[in-house]
Amino acid sequence: MPTTPAAPEVSARARRAVRWSLVLFAAMLLVPMLGALWGYSTLLLAPACAAAMIVALVSLQGVQLTALKTMLWIGLGVSALALLSGVGLVILHEQILALVECQDRAITHTAEQACLDEYLDSSAEMLERWGLNVPAQLRP
Fold this sequence. Notes:
Layout: H1 12-30, H2 42-59, H3 66-91, H4 93-105, H5 109-129
C-alpha cells in the first residue's frame, strides 16, 4: 500500500516569526487608534511587521499552509499602505497638529466641523504648492 509523504514539520523559527508578525500586525492596526499623533508609530511598526512577515514566509517555504501564507501576503500589502500613511502624516505634520489643537478646544459639533474644514483647506493648499491638485469633490 503506497503511503503519502508526511507534511514537512513547521520549525520553531517559523512559528516564532508568525507569532511576531501577528503581534506587530495587531499593534500596527490598533496603536494609531489611540489618537492622531500615535499614527506616527506606523513608521516603525510597518517595516518591523513586514520584516517579520517576510521571515515567516521564507521559513514556511515548502509547508502546505496556503491560508496562512495568503494572510501573510495580505499583511505585507497592509504594511506597505500603513507605511505610506505614516509618510503622509509626516508630510502633513503641521496641519495635523493644528487640527488636534483645534479639536481639543472645540466644544460643539459645529466647531469640530469647522476645525476639519480648516484642516482640509490647509492640507489642500499645501498639496497644491507641491503641484498636486485636490479634486473639488473632496474639498469642503
